[in-house]
Protein 1
Amino acid sequence: MNIKFTKMHGIGNDFVVIDAYSSVVSLSANQIRAIADRHFGIGCDQLLLVEKSTLPNVDFRYRIFNADGSEVEQCGNGARCFVRFVHDKHLTEKNEIRVETMRGIITLTLENNGQVTVNMGPPRFNPDQIPFIADAPAETYSLDVGGEEINISAVSMGNPHAVQIVANTGSAPVALQGPLIEAHPRFPEHVNAGFMQIIDDHHIRLRVFERGSGETLACGSGACAAVVAGIKLGLLNSPVNVSMRGGELNIVWNGNNSDVMMTGPAEPVFDGELDLSRIDTQTVATQTAVI
Ligand SMILES: N[C@@H](CCC[C@H](N)C(=O)O)C(=O)O
């Protein structure tokens, strides 16, 4: 079976986007892993499926799969690429679209300057995916990571984030601590690990070791979670500019139960056609085991 795809990125967080709206596309976790593989496949941090929604007054369903094949609730950079994709492929002409995700309905707006604003909804501080947090959430929690105690803020933007403050993102132990935090036993559904450097109260630098994908050049939901954590700690004031290795995002949050708004670019890279029968799911599934 041949399927058309578009390779896109949101400040370097890259995606394979597939139109499963015009015709049904169903992919196994093994096929997604093989497509995402940077040596045996196309290569991407996440694969995005654009589907029809069955809900009233909702334009599309947006499904997100990490490079390891797992389906997840939220992807901020992907949401911006989603808007650009449905416009470029003439699936809608609306500038404001309502999209069904695993975390609920989100609203996405294509701005006149080509940037996209995503209403990421309100943050949550005692989400199901972070069960060690009691009913009265603290600002930070202590976590034993490989014998070292670190302080993290636990924030859900629909998907779970553990954010810590570091002196310098350039020298932060992302490769060392990232996998340990991601799979820490206190996060049974695993977690995205953020490393935030405060530049001033309206500007941070951020690196994120993403659940199911490893360190990416940018993470939209991670940027929102870090800004929320910084504001809750009294270190940041909205709006906040978030600099990541792939580029910049603007995040607005007015506190309490208000929605987090994220604005940034979304870029197509190329279109292609994939022959699924040539995707080598076996090699990708076993390559780690062989090593
Ligand atoms: N890159 C994304 C987040 C993708 C999902 C994440 N890895 C998870 O497992 O929750 C973003 O831009 O938000």
Note: The chain has two domains: 2-121+267-290, 141-258.
Protein 2
Amino acid sequence: MNEAYAQEEARLQVMLEKIEKQLVELEGIPRYRGKDLVEQALDNQRQNRLKQLRIARNEPYFGRLDFAEDGKDEPTPLYIGKVGVQDDKENAPLVIDWRAPVASLFYSFTGETDRAEYTSPEGVIEGTVYLKRNIAIRKQQIQRVVDSYVRGEKSSGMVDEFLLYRLGEKKDNRLRDIVSTIQHEQDQIIRAERNIPLVIQGVPGSGKTTVALHRLAYLLYQYQEQLRAERFVIFAPNRMFVDYISDVLPELGVGDVQQFTFVDWAYDFFDDELPPVEKEWADEFAMGGTVDQADLAWFRYKGSLAFHDRIAASLTELEATFVPEKPFSPWEGKVLPAEEIRRWFAEEYRHYPLLKRKERVFARLKRWLEMELKELRDIDPRGKIRKQANQRLRTYMKAWPQPTPWSWYLRLISTKSAEFDVAPPAAFVQKLKRKRIGVTDLAPLLHIHVALHGISNENTFDHVVIDEAQDVSPYQLAVLQRFCQSNSFTILGDLLQNIHVHKGITEWRELMDLFAKGTCRYVQLNKSYRSTMEIIQFANEIVRDYAKGVAVATPVYRSGDPVRMLSVSAAERNVLLAREVQALIERGVGTVAVVTRTEAESERIAAELRDQGVEAHLITSTQAEYHGGISVIPIYLTKGMEFDAVILVEVDEGRYPVDELHAKLLFVGCTRALHHLVMMSSERHSPLLEKAARHGLGELGGEEVLR
Ligand SMILES: Nc1ncnc2c1ncn2[C@@H]1O[C@H](COP(=O)(O)OP(=O)(O)OP(=O)(O)O)[C@@H](O)[C@H]1O
């Protein structure tokens, strides 16, 4: 390996010199500020190259693949990096962009044989691989060189040493790119065709979020002439999550992708028309709360396609009755029949949204009136008839409906005879009348908004990513589809992490059925890269009885500490918890989450830790930023996040009784941990953990009593 190291060291110096030279040359060219379009385009190109060279300067590449195309005797070493760099002199690539077709070899090659192929714009290229090498470079220094394949040598087996090295690293407060270790099954998703909707069911830590972000970077590279980053959107479950993933795309050289929660995005269409969105299922995660089945049925119905269809039918009724039945008569004896006006509205302007049609009809009526008035010029010298006619037109237009999304929705919900499959509970109707709305009202409101106002081109998307899609309702997706006519969707989630009883889906069919039959691709990611084997095995057992055919996670072979189950006395809990946290920090752990059952408990524990001299960030549902370090967080807010160490406190039966919701909550909480997982309780541990305890504790494990 020393020889390989020396070889790469020498090669790196050459590469760095070439990159530096190009940088100096480009930096020496003054910016063009003139009006010449060609010069402007050239200047833009130079600026883009400069940006790329600056990225390449620190860590120019991460992999090397020696590949000989069939028909060539010698292999060519291909260096793969985050951005491509061209050798000016030889007009050949110095570093190949990881998204380029040939770079797919690096990810798809598994070493079972020496043969490999990739699809280039000219067709399939086949050849032989001689070497696959990972090269970790930090700040222009080689840190590590690992050969995962050398032709003619016995392969090291299934363990990807470089991947394990990467997975063993500490995490900071942001999700990071994985270009150097993208796995084959992930690469297939990243490079999947653009206009086929993809639905991905993936176990916790399988890289769903990360892969979706890499897919955006790939699409922008591959279709740079057709797609723009500003027309891409990522829907995430909450604002803190948006913050948490916000570094990955810039790291990949992609800027300006829109990132929203569904609520923030939808709400923006209404200006001041809507009141603030309230938590509608406030007791969702309250302890010991009972669920009102009538409420539950109503909330689930509101997210369903059946409700969507009912709203759509109401809009068809509105359209049919939009034009008043009586004709327009500007003066005695002159009549424009209602049928004619309806024909304009229903046929000639049918491509417009309803309110636009109304505007068009009004403008046309005005034109019609002008023509008719011209004929009257001689008998109406003082303009008396004109005045009266205009007055009648205004009165006539007032007879047209003036719906707003809000008024139409309210009217429908409060109409007793409205034919809903599930009747709205009286309390809900009362709330709505007092103008109080919740998240599940936004999809129908936006649906109505689109019917009334339409969608302007700048609000449409080229590609939509929906993360944590198990929490998205079919109605939300149906609305979103109107904003992305190309059906270019990446939808990802995990049914075992569906912890919202009143919303979301229970099987992927519910969302897939929204796309034309046979057009949607469904992929499963079953390998988990985040957590150690011990943590995964422990977490799997918690949820296994509720998996209902959904695959539980397969860990990569990365062993770590056993999961610890600690019993503490209630009186000493705060002292012992602070001690555990401090011990982890002293071991060099970067991010620690102390996870509680409710938000109120998080507040209490954060205060207790502070009393013990441990400063922790309290994370609540309104939080928009994640700071890393030590956090105290309610279990249901941990979804999508990850921490080096997780301590779940008070995991007793009162807080986590044996049922599906609590099993899923614990599953989510446990699978947030990368390296260390601790379950702490001052009462008997929840029975949900019994089976798990037999799997994740390792040989040395067992319940420890802390004093
Ligand atoms: N190929 C890979 N190489 C290195 N790290 C990876 C790889 N794939 C995933 N990871 C890491 O695994 C962790 C989990 O990734 P990510 O959060 O994208 O998973 P997820 O499937 O969205 O998880 P969850 O459903 O639990 O939110 C991240 O730290 C990510 O960097």
Note: The radius of gyration is 31 Å.
